[in-house]
User: What shape does this take?
Amino acid sequence: MSTRITEVNLAERSYPVFSGPGALLAAMDKVSALCPNKRLICVIDETVAPLHLETLKKACGEAQINLHPLIIPPGESQKSFARLEALCHDLLELQVERSEAIAGFGGGVIGDLTGFASAILKRGTGFIQIPTTLLAQVDSSVGGKTAINMAAGKNLIGAFHQPALVIADSAFLQTLPARQMRAGYAEIVKYAALGDEGFFSWLEQHGAAALDGDENRLGEAITRAIAGKAAIVAKDERENGVRALLNLGHSFGHALESQAGYEGALIHGEAVAAGMDTAFAYAVHLELCSQHDHTRLRQHLRSCGLPSCLNETPGGSYTAKAMMHILQNDKKNRNGILRLVLPRSLGDAIVYEETDPSGLESFLHEQLEAC
Ligand code: NAD
Ligand code: GLY
Assistant: This one.
């Protein structure tokens, strides 16, 4: 398999996503065009820097670009006002100009934080996403959502700020721990579950091999997921409609993550897996979706070592009351009405307006007891 290029079509904000093996080198001409001062500032964490900074430095050197890394600690806690302020301070010290691009080189945390700094610094600089986790390659690097967290919930302070270029080189995934690979895979399952039953069947057949390191199958899964996201973002950049479907599993997932505490006991993709299973279970409860489709989803999540049932989800002592509290602050809610992404079948999801929050709370309570 070679590098694939998927275009995110957003008129003057359109950009290419280079994915697969060799993506970094294939994209270096585009990087050069985004570095008018022949300098690339990249934000990277302390875990990724020793593994992959040298590779980027070499590629930049060959393109006569001076790489300037800003290295920060890893982890979700970095998506904070304190880190954002420190990062903006460092970027201003470097006299960043609006015309140059800042690169976020790492997982979704680095991408979300760097993207938000780029969105607000001098009212917006250029931005390049160089994702190094599977989750970031198939989801967070594409589509322009950037954010930091608040105590009230995840990603509540942020901006839409599209990158000018995404470089999702599969070579970076070779150092990713298996748990992080599985968590990223949950987002791939999400695309299939919300909009492409054929892709879901393909994942049932080939997903395990992709996770076990079969490069061709992993490459195909990544490309299909990126294409699925690019198509939805092109239709609805600001999430006024169909883009909300990309949140399948996320509302319940965020409610779990927030209780688990962002310290690694339950990581984002795991929370999304458990959240998707909950969305399917609730859709069955509401008679929106068949038990057969829920069983297929649950079996696939389990076969990949991902959480599914709420009462078996690791990482915290979850309560329905606390989950409801987080759900009430969800960004999708309108006019005080809770809006959930629920499946009608595998490959077909809708936004459902919840008119019976106490019924949902009882359902969650039962699921947390036994599901
Ligand atoms: P992450 O960024 O915390 O990365 C996970 C861990 O893997 C970190 O410790 C990191 O240092 C390490 N790592 C990264 N690349 C590595 C590599 N190649 N080899 C070894 N270790 C590596 O987590 P994530 O799962 O990538 O991203 C989760 C974040 O993304 C959350 O904050 C979530 O809210 C956000 N997100 C954003 C969007 C969006 O549209 N903007 C979508 C989904 C998720
Ligand atoms: N991860 C959901 C979105 O980008 O809309």
Remarks:
- The two ends are 41 Å apart (CA to CA).
- Residues 139, 143, 145, 243, 246-247 surround glycine (ligand 2) (CB under 6 Å).
